[in-house]
Specification:
The complex is a heterodimer. Chain A is α+β, with helices and mostly antiparallel strands. In chain A, α2 links the parallel β1 and β2. The mean pLDDT of chain A is 92. Chain B has one domain: P-loop containing nucleotide triphosphate hydrolases (Rossmann fold), CATH 3.40.50. Chain B is globular and about 70 Å long. The chains are: A alpha+beta, B alpha/beta. At the A-B interface, α1 and β6 of A face β1, α1, α5, α6 and α7 of B. β6 of chain A pairs antiparallel with β1 of chain B.
Chain lengths: 117, 217
């Protein structure tokens, strides 16, 4: 059984949430709002699986994880088209340019938490 | 009262911070360090063997290897002339800054010029976990197929150097060089690229010359 990187990711999420909650003297964390881009290779179910075990015994036990998934969005620097790339071909579907800018899809952050004090 | 607290923190910020500490340590010792990433079988170990064999007469080389089960790869690097440390990753799918930190503890850094970290064979996540090396090197290979940049964008986004290995197999494998290069150009324009073969040795000199130049910086 290969341990998934979601374990390390979930540990990190818990650490950040507990730290911010402690700064507010929270007694409970009820919700976590995560923003995850499509290109950040994270599986929601795996994070949830590890979360249930890791958060046990902390003030975040039972908190709900909200995943906002951001689809990848690219901007073609030649023709100006904004598009979501195919998983087998990144190039601009209109002009086939390789001059692209990644607008969305690499997000990987904890945006906010809901606490009780 | 329930209240919403803004956090806005990168999820792997703790790892990023530790990676910076690792880099400071490596810099203080005057070492040039690279993190080599690839899918299993792309030729990471062969590339390291070739590199160590060519450069060990001139430089003192340390090698950190994150293999899942065996120490075979570390043994190969040691046989080629490097001081090798094996990280027991316990089945993890990537190396992280914590593991690099403990590996650094096992090396006499003051006695090294070059540090090569061989990451775990995986195209999904290693690029997300910074280690604290100077350059990320991704090794692709002809038999893997020309669609890999398109399918694994985050790995290619995070690379400073791209090595396209096994070019001696080009006549035998359907590989559209243009399609591969378009994917690379889209994700990582201007990345330093070396096309080579660890089997025939073709193209290796350019790669070795690049490392040599980086060590001297």
């Amino acid at each position: 059984m290969i341990a998934m990187h979601e374990l390390a990711v979930t540990e990190s999420i818990l650490e950040i949430a507990l730290r911010h909650a402690a700064a507010q003297n929270a007694t409970r964390i009820t919700d976590l709002y995560l923003v995850i881009g499509q290109w950040s290779s994270i599986v929601d179910d795996s994070v949830q699986f590890y979360w249930d075990t890791l958060s046990d015994g902390t003030i975040a036990k039972g908190a709900t994880l909200h995943f906002e998934r951001i689809p990848t969005e690219l901007l073609c620097l030649d023709c100006g088209k904004t598009y979501q790339p195919d998983s087998r071909d990144l190039l601009c579907p209109d002009c086939h340019s390789t001059r692209l800018k990644v607008l969305k899809g690499e997000e990987f952050r904890l945006d906010s938490i809901e606490i009780e004090t | 009262m329930p209240q919403n607290i803004p956090v806005v923190e990168k999820i792997l910020s703790a790892n990023d911070k530790l990676a910076q500490e690792n880099l400071a340590r490596i810099d203080a010792a005057g070492i040039f360090a690279i993190n080599i990433m690839a899918s299993p079988g792309a030729g990471k170990t062969s590339l390291i063997e070739r590199t160590v064999r060519a450069l060990s007469p001139k430089y003192r080389i340390g090698m950190i290897n994150g293999d899942i089960a065996t120490s075979l790869d570390a043994d190969r690097a040691a046989a080629a002339g490097a001081v090798a440390v094996q990280i027991n990753t316990g089945g993890n799918c990537h190396l992280d800054a914590v593991q690099l930190q403990s590996a650094l503890d096992q090396l006499d850094l003051s006695s090294l010029d070059l540090l090569i970290v061989e990451n775990i064979g995986n195209l999904i996540c290693p690029a997300e976990f910074k280690l604290g090396t100077h350059k990320n090197v991704i090794v692709a290979s002809i038999p893997e197929g020309d669609d890999k940049p398109h399918k694994y964008p985050s790995m290619y986004r995070g690379a400073d150097v791209l090595i396209l290995n096994k070019i001696d197999l080009l006549p035998y494998v359907p590989f559209r060089m243009e399609f591969f290069s378009q994917g690379v150009a889209a994700l990582n324009p201007g990345v330093t690229q070396f096309n080579l073969s660890c089997t025939t040795g073709e193209g290796l000199d350019a790669w070795l010359g690049w490392i040599d130049g980086q060590i001297k910086k």
